[in-house]
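writing this on my phone so excuse typos. first protein, seq and then structure
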Amino acid sequence: MASNTATMGNLPSGVGICTTIPDILYLPELIFGGLVWILVACTLVVPQNPQGWVMFVSVFCFVMTFIWLLIFACGGHHNKGSWAAADFVYHGIAAFFYLSASVALAKVTLEMKDGSSFQNYQLDIAAVVFSYVATLLYFIHTILSAIRWKSF
């Protein structure tokens, strides 16, 4: 009988994604990315351009991470070497996107300190914190995915 747990060199499927590194990071990425999405959507969107980028990144990464999670959970990855490389590339792009969105969101939040309502300011501060946490999670996932990819 096969075990659902996997070593660093294997790509898990099914319940194994909830017990292996770096795949266990999917759920925190979804949670913190969703929180960024919700908090930015709740605030007054001024200026539109940086906040629009933050919304795009948070929604894009949330949807793509959820799809990626489903692919791994359903066992849709057959050529393990190329899927490991794709996992590394996706999480590297997501980490870069989240870093750029986090910096833009922090800049907008600092600029709106005096000019907006205190409630919007607090929501944006929370969004900045969660955005940097999501960036860190995606960055850690990228490093661990690179290690797994290189072990193939």
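second protein below, same order as before
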Amino acid sequence: MITWSGRILAFLGALHLAVGTLLSSRYIGEWLSFQLWFDGTDVTELRPAVGAFWLGPGSFGLPLLLIGLLVEWMDRRDIVPPAFLALALLAWIGVGAVILEPAPWLVAGVAAVLLLVGTRRSAAAPGAVSVPRAG
């Protein structure tokens, strides 16, 4: 379960990053010439190049990809990811699903539920290493 969760999260992150960057690629010249820097306009009125940046390379795609790869890496080493990671993902997915549709929130939600169930089952399994508590 944990492996599939990591794979799904990594796939969604990579897909979002690739498609978002591809769709916004016409603005790459503006990005690389520092035209996204604050220009004195109201921050709530984004120029198309700024919005395109936040759709692609500035999106949550890369962190989601890294979370998925980290979850899979931990699972391959028999390290149980902390349950708070799955709970935080579920909270983020829930808020996102309420605010923005259509989006693949259901697929991300399945991955987060798989992660949560997998962490609960693995924490009780003999031989699994849990993330140590601080303090």
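The helical segments are 2-23, 28-32, 48-55, 61-76, 83-99, 105-124. thats all i got for now
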